[in-house]
Amino acid sequence: MPRSSARKWPKLLPPLTPEQKKISDDFVKQWLELLPRRYSRVEEFNHNYPLRSSPGGFRTTLEIGAGLGEHLHYEKLTPEQEENYVALELRENMAAEIRRQFPRVRTVLGDCQRRTDFPDGFFDRIIAIHVLEHLPDLPGCVQEAWRVLRQPDGRFLVVIPTEGSPAYGLARKISAERVYKKRYGGSYTWFHRREHINRVWEILEELHPYFVVESKRFFPLPWLPFVFCNLFVGLSLRPRLTPLED
Q1: Separation CA 36–CA 99 (nearest Å)
Q2: CA angle 229-138-168, nearest 5°?
Q3: Cβ distance 148 to 62 under 8 Å?
Q4: pLDDT tens-place string over residues 19-28
Q5: What are the DSSP E strand ranges found in the chain?
Q6: Of 31, 98, 137, 217, which cross-links 69 as Cys (Cβ 3.0–4.6 Å)?
Q7: Class at the top of the CATH hierarchy for domain 22-239
Q8: For the CA atoms of 238, 218, 113, 66, what is the dihedral angle to 10 degrees?
Q9: What CA–CA distance (Å, rounded) separates 64 from 87?
Q10: Sign of CA pseudo-dihedral 10, 11, 17, 21
Q11: How does pLDDT run across 65-89, given as a tens digit for each residue?
Q12: What gap in Å lies between CA 208 and CA 142, rounded to an integer?
């Protein structure tokens, strides 16, 4: 790991009470179920960006933080691609839903910040849709993604929010925060501060030693490619042959 990363990571999060843990698991699942019904335009960007940026003729896929498997609804996979699609998910309640809906893909319960059992260069593409902003040990995830991605023509396909921007703060107030307060009451602050712990610049900083940004797209204003006025950024990343050192 580059020395600058070693000094900063992993980020330490305050422990959850049993009630907060229960709310956190429940709300994440409820929010992921609500997104495609209420915010379809957002979901179309989230899931179509990786499709448009996927390498031609890919065979193997790793989706990290696969949630409820929503991205799989957008994929048009051949039987071979489906058989070689791995959905990695941390929460058992969500992994169970992926297994129920998509029994032909391989669902793995695990942490994308830790070393997996897959060999070096195993995957043609890795998909991370709204995952990297959540990770206390982001460098661990980036290094493992680099290790298991095929070089030089594999692709790491990422979508992240512009957390901290005026546009994203306003959008959260009128969407997720409103839903949370209606369902649970009380303050939403503890939840979102614990969930979105990494900003765009931090994520790009950790990706840089291992990946080259091949393309980038902002949403909803691609013609204004600035963080402050957009909600999300899509990134298509090519692995470096050798990681950069400080």
Answers
A1: 19
A2: 20
A3: yes
A4: 998 999 899 8
A5: 61-64, 85-89, 106-109, 125-129, 155-161, 211-219, 232-239
A6: 98
A7: alpha beta
A8: -100
A9: 6
A10: negative
A11: 999 999 999 999 999 999 999 999 9
A12: 10
